[in-house]
Amino acid sequence: MVRDHIERERPLLVLLDEAHRRIPVLRQELQAAPCQLRGSLTAADSRTPAHDEVVELQLPFLDWLPDAHRERAARFLKDSDATLSRTPQALLPALMTEQTYDGLPPSPRFARRLSPDALSAGRLAAAVEHLFAHDRQPCAAAGHRSGAGR
């Protein structure tokens, strides 16, 4: 469904957290993962001794998106980090969205959920509908945690 939305330029909102967060997993979980999945993950932290039960992984950043969209997402994260660093938390919105401009494809759009507790599924769906109000096609929201986009 996500690939279809991207290919047909249908409304798609991608929620981003961080680009390079490290994810702790049990070594046995990693060893039990399918070979194809293990091969696509960034190698375990080289600082983690081989006998430790917990290893840290860095998941590929939005590897399911075409390069141009992935670069836009990384730029949005960098720009929003700068905004977040200079804005008091009390003045931040629950959802920070990528600004639109001429020449920017209408979809996908990127956003950061700054107050997860303030955004129920219904409120988030309403935000998606509002952000893509100009487009009458069915909307979709894709969640992204920890840089994985999965």
Characterization of the model:
It is built from five helices and six strands; from the N terminus they run αββααβαββαβ. The protein has helices at residues 2-7, 27-32, 35-40, 67-86, 121-131, and strands spanning 12-16, 22-26, 54-58, 95-97, 109-113, 140-142. The strands form two sheets. The protein has a four-stranded mixed sheet. The chain has a two-stranded antiparallel ribbon with strand order 2-3.
Fold blueprint:
Blueprint: H1 2-7, E1 12-16, E2 22-26, H2 27-32, H3 35-40, E3 54-58, H4 67-86, E4 95-97, E5 109-113, H5 121-131, E6 140-142
Parallel strand pairs: 1-5, 1-6
Antiparallel strand pairs: 2-3, 4-5
What's the shape? Answer: globular
Q: Which value, in Å, is the CA radius of gyration? A: 17 Å
Distance between the termini: 13 Å
Q: Give me the count of strands.
A: 6
**Major sheet: size, sense and barrel closure?**
4 strands, mixed
Work out the strand percent. 15-25%
Oligomer: single chain
Which strand order spans the largest sheet, edge to edge or round the barrel? 4-5-1-6
Note the run of SSEs as H and E: HEEHHEHEEHE
Q: Estimate the mean pLDDT confidence.
A: 78
